[in-house]
Design a protein that fits this description.
Elements (H helix, E strand, L loop, with lengths): L9 E8 L6 H10 L12 E10 L13 E10 L6 H5 L7 E7 L3 H5 L1 H11 L6 E7 L11 H11 L2 E4 L8 H18 L38
Parallel strand pairs: 1-3, 1-4, 4-5, 5-6
Antiparallel strand pairs: 2-3
Bound molecules: guanosine-5'-triphosphate and magnesium ion.
GO molecular function: G protein activity; GTP binding
Keywords: Acetylation, Disulfide bond, Endosome, GTP-binding, Hydrolase, Lipoprotein, Membrane, Methylation, Nucleotide-binding, Prenylation
Enzyme class: hydrolase
Length: 228
């Protein structure tokens, strides 16, 4: 993918994966556009959406730094259907963080989380990439098939953060992407050997390197919480 241009410090690629129909496209659409389409149009192969955010790193006392990092987020949306598997897994290796999604109303999609994780271990840029686990369609409480405690236990046993989301109401959608961004940025700050990260993470322009800088948020497109 070509350099999107413009002024940013980091270009980060996140990728959504999980069974067909769990709501990957809907979550990304809700995150970038703030809207929801109840019609199911299954993704063919791969797609992506983009968003500019300003990230304020977490301080050791839990507060946020006033200094902001300008991030260009590319959100890759993979098809969950089996027939696209070899195509979609080829994109795993360029992603820095993963939104692993199951459907709270579909038990099999929860069971399949372990399969998706093993696909990730095989194809991602490293064996333990940053991942957040999302139980989606939380608005359909009367159709719930996966218990919150069960999902939390799985997430805990795998060392993953867990969020119950709704692409329909927007519940926890931004929060979960922000949580992934926090994890990825901590990894980037701690990464001594940047050669182990996927390509093109840092903006190569020496005048807009990956330094912390003051950002005029009033002039930024999408600024909030982490703040995305
Ligand atoms: N009620 C409700 N419906 C949702 C939610 N998220 C997605 N849906 C619906 O579920 C269906 C599938 O959503 P998609 O986002 O297309 O699923 P997907 O994971 O991208 O599926 P593939 O592209 O086939 O892998 C659509 O009809 C959506 O409108 C949600 O949080 N709540
Ligand atoms: Mg889709």
């Amino acid at each position: 993918m070509a350099d999107p241009g413009g002024d940013y410090d980091y270009l980060l690629k996140f990728l959504a994966l999980g069974d067909s129909g769990v709501g990957k496209t809907s979550i990304l659409y809700q995150y970038t556009d703030g809207s929801f389409n109840p019609k199911f149009i299954s993704t063919v192969g791969i797609d992506f959406r983009e968003k500019r955010v300003v990230h304020h790193p977490l301080n050791s006392d839990g507060t946020r730094s006033t200094r902001g990092q300008r991030i260009h987020l590319q959100l890759w949306d993979t098809a969950g259907q089996e027939r696209f598997r070899s195509l979609t897994t080829a994109f795993f290796r360029d992603a820095m963080g993963f939104l692993l999604v199951f459907d709270l109303t579909n038990e099999q999609s929860f069971v399949n989380i372990r399969n998706w994780l093993s696909q990730l271990q095989t194809h991602a840029y490293c064996e333990n990439p940053d991942i957040v686990l999302l139980g989606n369609k939380a608005d359909l409480e009367d159709q719930r098939m996966v218990d919150e405690g069960e999902a939390k236990n799985l997430a805990e046993s795998l060392g993953l953060k867990y969020f119950e989301t709704s692409a329909s109401t927007g519940q926890n959608v931004t929060k979960s992407v922000e949580a992934l961004l926090d994890q990825v940025m901590v990894r980037m700050e701690n990464c001594v050997d940047q050669a182990t990260l996927p390509n093109n993470v840092f903006n190569n322009n020496p005048n807009r390197g990956p330094k912390l800088r003051e950002v005029d948020e009033a002039n930024d497109e999408t600024s909030s919480g982490c703040t995305c």
